[in-house]
Amino acid sequence: MADKAKKQWRCIPWCMYLRKYLPGLKGQSGLTLLETVLALFLLLLMLHSVMAVYWHVFLATSQLQDLPELQYSVRRSRQYLAADLAACIQVQVKDASGQPAVSGPHLFLTMSDELLHYYIDNDQLYRDSNHSSPLPLAEHVNSLHFSSHNPGTVLMLIRAEQNGACCESICSLSYNRYADEVIQGGEE
């Protein structure tokens, strides 16, 4: 008798509520089935929450893993350009149409024995020489802009992006040449 009273007392709030809205439930077996279904629903809800947290952590770590590669690409392109600028004789910046300009996405460096061309194509930064085929310097570079407003300096803006991670760099590189050796705009 005491066991029956304990069972009834334990499920009185749920029993009254469920019997009112679900008249097909009869006795303890119906409540056990409903408790099992509710437990499965709560388990699915918890699994969904855990998987959502796992997915967001995975996305964040994948972006963090892409960042060093992007930084390396930007740093490598900056190092190549600085080394070539130190040895160049003339600098010429051209716009997208190939016309000489003060700023644009193409940089031409005249060396003592070759002509170098820096440009991007299909998210790759290339260094093209008149003596060899184009050399890919950096991957995932989607924006490149050169500017030569002051004689003796070249300003480079480079942006690399992959899977939502982004790395940008603005650097001013000098080549310590005289003003008449810099070809910019309409001057030749």
Mind sketching the topology for me?
Blueprint: H1 2-21, H2 27-87, E1 90-94, E2 103-104, E3 106-110, E4 115-121, E5 124-129, E6 132-139, E7 141-147, E8 153-162, E9 165-174, E10 182-183
Parallel strand pairs: 1-10
Antiparallel strand pairs: 1-3, 2-7, 3-4, 4-5, 5-6, 7-8, 8-9
Describe the structure.
Strands 6-5-4-3-1-10 form a 6-stranded mixed β-sheet, with helices on one face. The protein contains 2 helices and 10 strands, in the order H-H-E-E-E-E-E-E-E-E-E-E. It has 2 domains: 2-56, no CATH class; 69-183, no CATH class. 43% of the residues lie in helices and 33% in strands. Mean pLDDT is 80; it is low at 178-188. The chain has helices at residues 2-21, 27-87; strands at 90-94, 103-104, 106-110, 115-121, 124-129, 132-139, 141-147, 153-162, 165-174, 182-183. The chain is rod-shaped.
Instruction: Report the order of strands and helices.
Output: HHEEEEEEEEEE
| Number of domain units | 2
Number of strands: 10
Task: Report helical residue fraction.
Answer: 40-55%
Adjacency order of strands in the biggest sheet: 6-5-4-3-1-10
Compute the gyration radius: what is it?
34 Å
What would you call the structural class?
alpha+beta
Which descriptor suits the 3D outline? Answer: rod-shaped
Q: Would you tell me the overall average pLDDT? A: 80
Low-confidence stretches: 178-188
Largest sheet: 6 strands, mixed
What's the tally of helices? 2
Taking the alpha carbons of the first and last residues, their distance comes to: 108 Å
Instruction: Assess the beta-strand content as a share of residues.
Output: 25-35%
